[in-house]
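Lab notebook: predicted structure, single chain.

Context: the supervisor wants predicted structures on file for every construct in the current expression panel, including those that have not yet been purified. This is the next one on the list. No modifications to the sequence; it matches the entry in the shared construct table.
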Amino acid sequence: MNVDSYKDGVLPFAAMVMLEVGNVGMATLGKAAMTSGLSNFTFVVYYNALGTFILFLYYIFQRYRSRGPPLTFSLLFKFFLLGLLGICLEQICAVTGIKYSSPTLAVAMGNLIPGFTFFLAVIFSLIGAIVIAFGFYTVMWGQAKEKVMVADNVHSLESSTQKTPLLQNT
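Prediction complete. Output recorded below exactly as produced.
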């Protein structure tokens, strides 16, 4: 087996297995810690602190290895807001779920997130398509109604009856 087929075939599979083992391990350790009295919020803070430390070491290593774009305060602030409003709230909900149920259920539900995301995207795209089609047909109905009323020689804008044209050419 040469190196290229190893990178393409075995390495992604091994990375996925390691990620799942780490995910199950963190959920199990979190459940054990919360059973012994650790707060949900404290666990999330420790979890994010560990992730920040690991990513910061990776950033330092990459920064001195190659010249990349600078890390400005504006970019750091955007990362902070994204982490606080996005993943931090999700982690608080997930850890609360782990506290009241089992880590196995939490990890299994976590693996369903891409499927739910796809399902919601399909639903909302269909709803958007329906709204667009309804708007299109409403405009077409209005134009057809206007043509009928113009053909009946209704030109008065002061009239409050149904004979007023819906769209005016100005």
